[in-house]
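pasting for ref. prot 1 ->
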Amino acid sequence: MTLEELLPDSDYRFSFRFERADPRAFFSPTESHKELIAQRRPWLENEAERYSALLSDGERLLDETIELCREWGVLEGEDDSFLNNPQQARLRCIALGWALESDFLLLRTEAGGARLVGGVVCFPSSWSLEEKIGRPITSVHEIVPGLNESLGSQISSFLMKLRPGVAWSRSNWGLSRSAELNQHPARGLPRLDDEVGLEDVWLRVEHQVLVALPKASGILFGIRIAHHSLVDIQKSTLLAQRLAHALRTMPEPVAVYKGIAKVRDLLIELLNRRQDDAP
């Protein structure tokens, strides 16, 4: 999804836009593979309990995910060999988190909906895997003001109707004062305040992919993070105007949840300032 598509010419609202996706392309190594893996592994080596989780009813989903990753050819030889070794399921989960650039979640589909039963999230967007594990998706989304009310039933229905062989992608965004990939709340990274300039703020985009796991009755949920400096956003009149409008029309409870409420007027002013008006 392009930034123009991510920031449409309309008032802010929760988006339920999904596009057909190629899971092989999503999970395949990129030019930044070594750098991303080097950032991921220390979190799993030193704080595996914080950045990985697997319930017993997520083990079959993990094994099917590993099978798919092998079919897609996204695992390097050494990583694939390690996953072949006899070991506990939790260690296989961590090993997959070592091998992939992207984070992943495992959702089990049940009569009542989808439930989070495992995954590795080294680069969370201000949320905690250890607090969400075992909970239904509707419960996971409760913290987002208005999301369940506006889209909860659509999300649940979509997840339950996913079919094998077809993957879907979507993207969402927030603003952050840090370009760190790992924004776990326990790290205490700096927050947005009234002293920030455009050079201090990043548009944090979360690209997601959903893949059905039919053998295990579940879903593989992949997450990749991208950052765009607001300095670059402001250089595009179109993007600056659209982001400013999204901030202006964002409901107050959502702005509070996203940590934007106290600085939204400042950010709108900075985005609308043209280059030749800058001091």
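and prot 2 ->
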Amino acid sequence: MRAIHLTDNEVPLDIVLHTPGGLVLASLQIALAIKEHPAKVTVDVPHYAMSGGTLIALTADEIVMAPHAVLGSVDPQIGQSPGASLIRVLWDKQIQNIEDKTLIAADMAEKALYQIEHAVVDLIHDRYSPDKAEEIAQLLTQGHWTHDYPIDVRGQRHDPNPIARNLYRA
């Protein structure tokens, strides 16, 4: 972030992004710093930019990916569990059969899913219509794929599921 802040406003940024992801807070801080940089920002993904790396990549003016490079979903993880899966427990089991620890985690997951979806919309709303920004945010944040699912430039090589293809029509 310091390098972004110290870069003159007229100087384009070229960022090589190769990361398994990380904390949402840190990723959003970097993404917002990139978004506020007035000159062109290009993100180069040589191998993968998963999770928080995808959040950062979403703010670039251009994403350049190597032929087999991938992005990943940005669905929140609560401890070692996918947030969307924790919420599904609430749908699939009667509340008296759910441990308090799981109920608390599911509550946190609901908040995290809401927060990250709205964060993605905020990061991309100036490039897409409100409906399209919401669609992209839903695809990336709501547990449609496993957290390490690779989304490539074609959006369809790894999965015949149309969700991946729809992301690239956005």
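The longest strand covers residues 41-45.
The chain has seven helices and seven strands.
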